[in-house]
Amino acid sequence: MDKERIKILLECVKENKISVEKAIEELKDLPFKDLDFVKFDTHRRLRRGLPEIVYCKNKTIEQLETICKELKQEKMVIYSRLSSEKANILLNIDKDLIYNKEGRIAYKTDKDITISERKVVILAAGTSDMRVAEEAYCCLIAMGNRVEKYYDVGVAGIHRLFSLYDRIKDANVIIAIAGMEGALPSVVSGLFEAPVIAVPTSIGYGANLRGISPLLTMLNSCSLGIAVVNIDNGVGAAYLATLINQRRF
Fold first, then answer.
1. Fold for the domain defined by 119-246
2. Cα distances (Å, whole numbers) of residue 87 to 13, 73, 119, 223
């Protein structure tokens, strides 16, 4: 439920196109829709400007079918950590959904949304980090951001990053994604004015500890202006980037 839908509903009541009882029926799902096994926060987009994101891992096909049928009328929907098998089922229910296999995410964006003029740049240290980067990218697109993404620009060949300087310098927010030792966000933060959202990934050899090592590196960065999200959390990075991008400072 977004502001526009509520506005239209109230206008219809005002003009006697629908009854008060019908309007109450429409609004009964505020602030959440109770489907027994899930209480979906339909009020969140109205409250925060962005919708609740459906985390699909460990949800059954039957549960996701029920959720998808209920959310089909929503203009902006995001399903994260979604397998190809489950995605095929949801795409048959909601034809407007777009599925990104690499990012394991399905989404649709509000066709009436105004695309932000401010740019978000995604930087991924290695090709192996693309899974997380694509998750962030799809979320950003769904939420109405202008996005550019550049992959395989890690510190092992830092000249690759420097070659993109002119394309990155006008970013309003930068998402820097890295596994291994996780040094990329510190370098990026030292070079550019924009705030940096650092995303550690679980990519790396044994002492990477499935992302713990880059997480600690990013948390201990000496370069100021870095916010760190959880391991492999492309969704969280995109959500935070969007909130920053929407603000008018």
1. Rossmann fold (3.40.50)
2. 38, 18, 29, 40
